[in-house]
Every structure is written in C-alpha cells, then in structure tokens.
Amino acid sequence: MGRNVRVLLVVSVLFGVAGGIYEIVLPYYLKDQGLSFTNMGYVFAASTLAMFVVRIGLGGLADRWGSKRLYAVAVASVALACFGTPLTSGLALLIIFKTLREVGVLARDTAHPILLFAEGRSRFADFIGKTRGVEFFFQALGTLLAGLGWVMLGLRGMFWAAAAALVLALLLLGLGVRTTPRREPAPGAKLGTLLSFDLPRNLQVIMVANFIFSIGLSTSHSFIMPLFFTEKFGVDAAQVSTVMVLHRLTSVLPLLFAGYLSARHYKSVYIGAFIIEGVTIAAGGLIPNFFWAAAVWLLHDLLGAGVWIPIQSAIIQEECREGSRGLDLSKTLAFSALGGAVGPVLAGYLAGISVSAPYVVSGILVTISAGVLCALKLAPRAAVEAAA
Fold first, then answer.
1. How many other CB atoms sit within 10 Å of the CB of residue 169?
2. Is the distance from CB of 202 to CB of 315 less than 8 angstroms?
3. Where are the alpha helices (DSSP H) in the chain?
4. What is the DSSP letter of 304?
5. If you average pLDDT over residues 373-378, what whole number do you get?
6. Cβ 131 vs Cβ 243: under 8 Å
7. What's the rounded Cα separation, in Å, for the pair 341 and 339?
8. Alpha carbons 322 and 329: distance in angstroms, whole number
9. Mean pLDDT of 42-60
10. Which of 12, 29, 37, 342 gets the highest tally of CB atoms within 10 A of its CB?
11. Whole-structure pTM value
12. Are 119 and 5 in contact (CB under 8 A)?
C-alpha cells in the first residue's frame, strides 16, 4: 500500500468521524428548530437539485485541475457547512449550508476513487473497499461520539467538532498526497456536453438503475432515518444513536474484504445485493417490534451496500474513458443521485400518513432498481485484466 493510499485512508477516517456526527445531529437540530417533516424534506431535497449541475462541472474540473485539488475544495466546503449550519435556523440558509455540504461530499466521491485508481487498477476494488470500510467504521464512531458528546457540547458544539476533524483532514491531504502535475490541462467541456447522456452503455445502465435506487434510498435515508425509530417505537436518542452506530458498522466487514470477491461474479452479486437491500429496508418498516425491526433493517448494509459499493465503483472506473474519466464518473453519479431530490420530499409527505411508510416505499423502489442492472453487459474478466 503506497503513501497516497495510506494518507487517503487517514483522510477517510477523519471524514468518517465528521460525517457520523453530522448525519445524526442534523435531523435533531432541525427538529429542535421547529421544522416540520415537510420542511425537513425540502432542506434535503433542495440540496440535491442544486448540486446536480455543479457536480457534473466539478467532474470536468477533476480532468483539468487534477483530483487532489478538487478533493481539497470538497473537504473545505464540507468543513464550512459543518461550521455554519448551527449558526442559523432560517430555512433558506439551512438549505444553502446543506447544499454546500452535499456538493462537497459528492465532489469528494468523484476525486477519491480517481486518486485510488491511479495507484493501481488491479488493486482498485481492494483500495476502495478498505478506505470506504474504514470510513464507515469511523462514521459509526462519529455517531457514537455525537450521542455522548451533545450532552456536554450541545448540538452546536458537535457540528464544530465535525468541522475541526475536516480541517485536519484538509491539512493531511495537502501535505501528504503526491500527484504528478498535468502538462496540458484537459479542455473545458461545453454545457451541452456536460448535460448529455454521451456515456458508455454500461454507465447508462448503472445511471438509470441508480436514479431509481436513489429515489428509494433517500426516502428512508434522509431526515426520517433516525426519527423513524423515535416516532414509531418511542425510544430515546441514546437508543437511536446505538442503531445508527451499528448501521455504519455493518458495512465495514464486507467492504474490508472486497478485494477477495471474485470479479467473475460481479454482475450477479451486484444485482443480488440490491435486492437484499430493498427487501430488508421494507421489512424494517413493517415489523412492529423495535428490536427485530432494527435487527432486520441493519442487514441492508451488511448484505447490501457493503457488498455492492466496491463492485459498482470498480465497474464504473473500468467503463470510464481515459481523458474524460472525471467527467464520465461525475456525470454517471450526478444523474444517478438526481433521484435523491425526490426521496426526501416523498418521505415528508409519507411520514405525515404513517412514519413507517417511507421505509416500506424505500425498500420497494430499491428492489425495483435491481431489475435495471440485468441489462449490464460486462466484458470477460480476462479482457479487463489485460487492459489494466
């Protein structure tokens, strides 16, 4: 494991801690400010819509600037959002800071795999699995720290603790990652090119599947995720924090062992993991007992996301074209994530009917998205390894 991979591993640790704090604290902060479920949905949805075009442009910048610079801008924007969010209670400013945070997160999601792919194509699935696995583990730690820390520091103090971790990550990234300067920057893409569907066929398939998937996932994995357990079962914040900690830990083990997964079975495992994720999310919303609902729901990452994340990342990187890798990647992920603007609004309305409804609808949509992946046509593994 080279120097850059080790540094990115540490950056992932700090990013994970900050993310774990932010994701558990934000819904309770919004509730504390008196926002309704519907307005919470708007905060989460508006940020997704706003970041769509921005993210595609940032992918092009990765080709022009280099991924390290884009990575640094991404981390800085997330830090600024964590710092500024607890300074306001106005809906407009909350949306702005949430947008700034999500743009940064997704820009990092563009730069991070490109840097790892440059370190070794044949080991990419291993590198992405380990860095994401470590990140999720420390997201769990961040969630635990938030559950314990806001008693002493308050919600505002926990936001600022997350910002401090991100500033440290930014320093490590700047000082520790070494990249080769580009001799000639890639030409800038026109707006028509940025918004076109000019992508390899497999990327288009993944994009459509993930668009449906992101509608489904964001219906349950938004503001409603921790509030579901509080509202339905009457459990306190400490118990919800425990579930959220386990939520992050369940994906760690499969991610850490992603390098051992046979690439010959990528497609079938990819589809199967989507189906399992959908079924377990829906089941979690239907089970009337807190313990069993949480236990079944937690399987969605252990047998779902923890398995398909490195597979999807590897397929996308292999399908992206040289010379426009950042643009191809960012377009695929941006169009995929656009469905995330629908989910939170849908959750806001569904939660007004039944707090269980967002989870059930979420699981159904995620399961449906698996069917689209059947259209993938992956090259024989031997050809891929020869190209690498």
1. 27
2. yes
3. 3-32, 37-65, 67-84, 91-119, 124-176, 191-194, 201-220, 224-233, 237-249, 252-256, 266-286, 290-297, 299-300, 306-319, 325-337, 342-353, 357-372, 381-387
4. I
5. 93
6. no
7. 5
8. 11
9. 70
10. 12
11. 0.74
12. yes
